[in-house]
Amino acid sequence: MQHFTSVQDITDWSLLWQKVQQVKENPQGRKTFGAGKAMCLIFLNASLRTRLSTQRAAMNVGLDTVVFDINQGGWQLEMADGAVMNGSKAEHVKEAAAVIGSYYNLIGIRAFAQLNDRDEDYQETIIQQFKKYAGVPIISLESSVRHPLQSLTDLITIEEYKKKERPKVVLSWAPHPRALPQAVANSFLEWMPYTNYEVVLTHPEGYELSDEFTQGIRTTNNQREALQNADFVYVKNWSSYRDYGQVLRTDDEWIINEDKMLLTDSAYFMHCLPVRRNVVVTDSVINSSDSLVIPQAAHRVTAAQTVLELLLDHA
Ligand code: AN0
Ligand code: CP
Questions:
Q1: Which CATH superfamily is domain 7-146+299-312 in?
Q2: Binding-site residues, ligand 1, Cβ < 6 A
Q3: How far apart are CA 282 and CA 86, in angstroms?
Q4: CATH 3.40.50.1370 domain span(s) along the chain
Q5: Which ligand approaches the C-alpha of residue 298 most closely?
Q6: Is the distance from the beta carbon of residue 50 to the nearest atom of ligand 2 less than 6 Å?
Q7: Considering the chain, what is the average pLDDT of its residues?
Q8: pLDDT one-digit tens code per residue, 155-166
Q9: How far apart are CA 197 and CA 201, in angstroms?
Q10: Residues 175, 233: Cα–Cα separation, whole Å
Q11: Burial of 273 (0-12, 13-18, 19+ CB in 10 A)
Q12: For the segment 287-313, what is each residue's pLDDT rounded down to a tens digit?
């Protein structure tokens, strides 16, 4: 694997699952694998899980890590090729990425969607420019379009907890007061064709995701119908893709509560976190024994370590 920025970067699925198993059984088993190598994690946005689990995974393989909050202490980067740089941006990504790539063997980068200009966000410019200019493997820590480390985590979690060969997995939109990116939902759906799960997507009208991610996915605006007999309920808010970046509604009709979970086949509740309690999901659901949010978040280390081990062969 050369980079890890989308599901399409996975070249060998059986090797990936073999690695996941090894990492789960013995996370400390490859303590010297990354010796002498170092990784830079660049954040343009806040993070708890990605920041900490990726560093923990690096420790487990003996890889040194630095975290660079580029907005606090770095230069503002120009992303456009051919730009006349007479504004506020002091450095071009062409130099910045190449320089960071000369210091580090791997680069992780988190750059959320700005939610202003859909075309610009969906070009995933920042991650693509780093891929182009850094000369080392790039790991997406959530781009403007995708969050592949989260999606791998989600699959590892479903595989661990599923009680049926073909579980029903429902991705449901839920309310949130602020505009959030579509990345987690896009990415989750992008990974689904690589599983045999029965997948149903449900969201209110106006929250359709890009066709690129929903083609072939059963979709309904009826949340209750979608939840019938579900084995896993994955909940996430996203802002509108159609009315790009808009919050179209904030009422609580789509909140996940106990009453809705009763429609399922004793489904597990999943969320990538951070989650707003009693807005997205009620306390009773997230506190219940069917809530997987903590083991799911713990698997962020499993996912990151698997990816690091696969990329280190090229770093
Ligand atoms: C981010 C999002 O929705 O993309 C990160 C989730 C992993 N969430 C928030 O900003 C609350
Ligand atoms: N799920 C996730 O990526 O969490 P953070 O935004 O805290 O990293």
A1: Aspartate/ornithine carbamoyltransferase (3.40.50.1370)
A2: 180-181, 183-184, 272, 274
A3: 50
A4: 7-146+299-312, 150-297
A5: 2
A6: yes
A7: 98
A8: 999 999 999 999
A9: 12
A10: 15
A11: middle
A12: 999 999 999 999 999 999 999 999 998
